[in-house]
Amino acid sequence: MTRSPETVLGPLQAVIFDVDGVLVDSPHEQAWREALAEFADPAQFLLAAASVATPPARCLVVEDAPAGIRAAKTGGMAGLGIARLGDEATLREAGADLVLTSLDQLDMSALPGGVLRTRAAPAPPG
Description:
- The chain is an alpha/beta fold and 126 residues long.
- It contains four helices and six strands; from the N terminus they run E-E-H-H-E-H-E-H-E-E.
- The protein has helices spanning 26-36, 43-51, 66-74, 88-93, and strands spanning 6-8, 14-17, 59-63, 78-82, 98-100, 115-117.
- The protein has a four-stranded parallel sheet.
- Helix 4 (88-93) links the parallel strand 4 and strand 5 (98-100).
């Protein structure tokens, strides 16, 4: 599946980061990811949106797990996937509107207008 380099979401009011603080050591990380692979309950994101009085369609969820992306999409929110472990394809398959490897790649100036896109690369010197 091909994604355009820019996704127009409409005006955003909230960006939700999944910062649940769960740290998983590497020997168990794959098992943990497999166990959560089918979990796509949007309740945590819907609660976060409600707490800032923002409709789900005007929220962007920033997630590093495919299950989190699925939960965001199930809840009617946009999903930005942050690939940490070479899992770009899985985040795209989960429905991420855009997948990056770092938030530094995100064009933050476009977000208030509801546009989700990568930041333009700086021009080479010279």
